[in-house]
Specification:
30% helix, Lyase, Ornithine Decarboxylase, Chain A, domain 1, 2 domains, alpha/beta, TIM Barrel, homodimer
Chain lengths: 397, 397
Amino acid sequence: MADADPALLGTIETPALLLDAARLQHNLQRMARQMAALGVRLRPHVKTAKCLEVAQACDRASLAAGVPGAAEPGPITVSTLREADRFAAAGWRDITYAVGLSPNKFAHVQRLLEAGVALTVILDSVEAARALAAAAAAGWRRPVQVLVEIDADGQRAGLRPEAAELPAVAAALQGPGLRLAGVLTHCGGAYHARGEAALRAMAEQERAAAVHAAARLRAAGFEAPVVSVGSTPTALFAAQLDGVTEVRAGVHVFMDLMMASLGVCRADEIALSVLTSVIGQQPQRGWTLVDAGWMALSRDRGLAGEFDDYGLGLVCDAQGRVLGEGGGEWIVSAANQEHGIVTHRSGDATRRLDLPVGTLLRVLPNHACATAAQHTHYEVLGLPGAALQRWPRFAGW
Amino acid sequence: MADADPALLGTIETPALLLDAARLQHNLQRMARQMAALGVRLRPHVKTAKCLEVAQACDRASLAAGVPGAAEPGPITVSTLREADRFAAAGWRDITYAVGLSPNKFAHVQRLLEAGVALTVILDSVEAARALAAAAAAGWRRPVQVLVEIDADGQRAGLRPEAAELPAVAAALQGPGLRLAGVLTHCGGAYHARGEAALRAMAEQERAAAVHAAARLRAAGFEAPVVSVGSTPTALFAAQLDGVTEVRAGVHVFMDLMMASLGVCRADEIALSVLTSVIGQQPQRGWTLVDAGWMALSRDRGLAGEFDDYGLGLVCDAQGRVLGEGGGEWIVSAANQEHGIVTHRSGDATRRLDLPVGTLLRVLPNHACATAAQHTHYEVLGLPGAALQRWPRFAGW
């Protein structure tokens, strides 16, 4: 944890999104070491941070650890074409857009290709493949790479690895302007797997699904050079990734309470928090009011209802130390747009954080992607040579 | 409802935030007529739209309806000092910041005052009053107006109207650089009151609390020229507002499924929706995948668990007509960052929206403030003289 000078924190108007540079670096190195050990390329998902500086730090960590294919700038995954635009403008070239493509984005895809981006898109049906093939054949001068999305766990999109339609989708992707490149999967079920054994099993399920689908494509006479898998839990808990060519992961850069609940990280490895001020009390209800409401925290409830319930976030002191004797005792239990209500996690209204108006606190996020999305920039603490630095993030589509 | 040319909608990349100009106008006129009838000033809360054009439309509707104190630009309420900055830069001058003030915002308040803004802030304790008085006494050349926040319903911040400390807070606000202006309350309980009788009772509870607190201040020898109340439900259902000088309301401009659940509006009066495309199917699970996930919709669950559960939003066709024979049959039942899963509201997996990839749909928001906050601009449909216009919104603190 970066030591934060209290006077420095006092210069920040609350609420604000804090990024601890030392914890970020720790998290990046952990993932890079794992990828280097497994011998697989890392294609970080920039949807979590939506920030050029964070992606640059990822690239540097991969290079330093000797991750295969690491470069500066390196390969990235995006969740929106806006991310592709922004990263392309800053020099990134090898970009995978990992959300099924709708036809009203074809023109945007073509613009990115013509700007020199090596863009890969995904789809999971003959219908979508035919639509893209028809568009690409009508004069796309630079080909788009296509991965067939595979459903490893019944959680979202994709064809099951054993789906009868798989070769037909591949067949629909033969033609000018596009190139079938392989398969991609994401085991969202990993966000519901707690503990090392369950996480390892999820990683293997994800790997096996992708490798099996790629093998079926090859057996049917198609090329499938790319076998892309990933999520933060499966990436960090995979014992081996034989047959996989790249791993995608996003939230590993910051970590969050969901990852802590699953046993993927400890709470004191979470690099992101929302700095907030006490603005009042309701002593008879055990409430401390803070100026971080759902606008600053997001409404994401993480794994509440399934595993740990932290309300809208876990409360730390200004230095980022979890409050309470055993730790983890105080949460943001309710919120309005710009008000958060901090209570004891037990719900015991006779217990109250008795802190003066103006006291600074930090709130750890349930879900880093969602909390970060509520902010326009990061206040980065602990960078060498800069007490406090602002890294912008972008939004929209 | 504005007729949306299908070819026009086809030019928008999804997901996108649509604003129906005709419905917006209808909602603004409804509130303005109510305020004119009650004879009370309207101070719209710009936190919902965070958009200059929407605030301008509010001002015009108030002027046209003859709302007392209406002007162009008129009085506004803000939830952040960023909103105050942006509106002040665009000419708005009479601004109330309706969130308890933390000391790390004092310098920002002073900057706004010195830029010529007639700024009003709120607080609810002797401690906070003393801190502000000390800062203001140390050389603020233009005074800040202060309202004491009153707790009308035990939902959030504020002093109870009968609280013994009330005169002491007022006493702590006597001094150079600041001026006690009265009281402010917001009956958040109105968001849990369903039906006309319950809403009318909430409006009266809110009015009575504020008027009582102001009377106590006056009886103790303090001036209290401002008695500010409001929320969209209480504003629209108040039968009389005797003793109240101004009403604040925000979500009335757009309306949303929460307001529809309470009986404040009909679903076909909701002006805001998220335009989305079908990107795939999982037929065996009854799923239609769309490109509006929680990033486009927000994670706000509205009044689920209490009244109607619309998942993350109610699905309409591209023209904004609620889908299903009886209406209200299809919802976004789950979402990832950029994926939404549309299912039948009954949970019956044998029922599925069988629509081709690329089909456009609209999703009505549970909570307009939260959904709009996920976007950088509005695509405004149906403005005179412009088929489609983009109105920017801003974010951050």
